[in-house]
Design the sequence.
């Protein structure tokens, strides 16, 4: 072959190669343009995912190549029966528990979240869960979870309570937690328990805890702002100082005496039998809601003002026995109360005028 023909052939190959190289990026761009999510920033994707339930988050992996693994770094891992067993047709409790366990483990196996905001387990208690709960809590600890919830639902009154795994936490993981919700769990603090120094919200429901352990846990929560204690029975006095506490809720719990030293307390909600109560140091107590199954007018007029003299608004519901009552001289009054709402249940109307005692007990009442 002559030199000119070889040169022409070489030139043609070079042109062909360049053309192929030019065509490839164009093809790639066209392929990318068909993906509407390709141009979205990562923080926008994470924001979108944070608004979806977990089962929908996992399904987004089929929407786009960019979304294929994005869901595995989802900051909110909320596992509940409605979400994880949505496709299950079985009515057997045991089978539903197996489906739930398998679904949670499958998600966590793929999940690469290293900065979890919220980790929640919510499911009816079943003995099958016992071997897995601590592994799930361990995942939350290793993922630096800020909000932790173990909300087990009782199947009957004899249901066992799962021991909270304090041993899985070190000082760093404890200091990262900002909110804890526990249900059907037993709290037994370890001797070297260092506390949750940065927790702001604590919700305990049907938790098996002694008064000593409860006071030990609470006294370590120096930054606690919200506390709810429901259906817990420490059967003893609770006396604790929580300087930052703003909202306190106590319901259907067997506590002999409640004494909270909380100068910043603003809201107090109580539901249960009348027990000795001391919130006298809560100088900013703005709103109080109380619901008693039974209460005497004398206790309402004399004990409640002594327990919370700085309360400004009071909503009181009770089954009350009315009888003529004369407010003693020198007794502590609601010296700051401006709003009073009564929902009283009683039989007979002979002593309705005795309710006027509330007017004497709250001299600054406006409404």
Sequence:
């Amino acid at each position: 072959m002559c030199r000119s023909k070889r040169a022409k052939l070489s030139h043609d190959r070079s042109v062909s190669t360049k053309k192929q190289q030019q065509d490839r990026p164009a093809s790639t761009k066209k392929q990318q343009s068909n993906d509407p999510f390709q141009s979205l920033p990562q923080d926008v994707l994470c924001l979108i995912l944070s608004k979806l339930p977990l089962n929908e988050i996992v399904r987004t992996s089929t929407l786009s190549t960019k979304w294929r693994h994005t869901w595995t770094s989802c900051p909110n891992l909320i596992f509940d029966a409605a979400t994880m067993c949505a496709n299950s047709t079985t009515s057997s409790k045991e089978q539903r528990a197996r489906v739930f366990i398998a679904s949670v483990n499958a998600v966590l196996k793929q999940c690469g979240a290293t900065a979890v905001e919220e980790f929640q387990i919510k499911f009816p208690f079943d003995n099958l869960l016992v071997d897995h709960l601590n592994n799930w809590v361990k995942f939350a600890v290793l993922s630096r979870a800020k909000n932790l919830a173990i909300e087990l639902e009782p199947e009957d009154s004899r249901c066992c309570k799962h021991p909270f795994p304090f041993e899985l936490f070190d000082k760093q993981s404890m200091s990262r937690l900002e909110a804890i919700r526990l249900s059907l769990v037993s709290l037994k603090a370890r001797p070297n328990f260092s506390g949750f120094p940065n927790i702001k919200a604590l919700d305990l429901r049907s938790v098996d805890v002694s008064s000593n352990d409860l006071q030990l846990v609470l006294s370590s929560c120096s930054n606690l702002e919200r506390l709810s204690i429901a259906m817990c029975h420490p059967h003893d006095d609770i006396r604790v100082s929580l300087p930052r506490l703003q909202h306190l809720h106590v319901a259907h719990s067997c506590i002999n005496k409640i004494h909270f030293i909380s100068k910043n307390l603003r809201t107090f909600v109580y539901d249960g039998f009348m027990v000795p109560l001391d919130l006298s140091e809560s100088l900013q107590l703005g709103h109080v809601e109380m619901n008693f199954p039974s209460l005497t007018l004398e206790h309402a007029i004399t004990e409640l003002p002594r327990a919370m003299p700085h309360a400004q608004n009071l909503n009181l519901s009770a089954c009350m026995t009315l009888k003529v009552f004369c407010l003693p001289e020198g007794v502590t009054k609601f010296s700051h109360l401006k709003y009073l709402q009564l929902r009283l249940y009683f039989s007979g109307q002979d002593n309705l005028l005795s309710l006027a005692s509330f007017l004497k007990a709250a001299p600054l009442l406006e409404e």
User: Anything to note?
Assistant: Residues 26-33 have pLDDT under 50 and may be disordered. Residues 258 and 277 are 5 Å apart (CA to CA). The first strand starts at residue 76 and ends at 80.
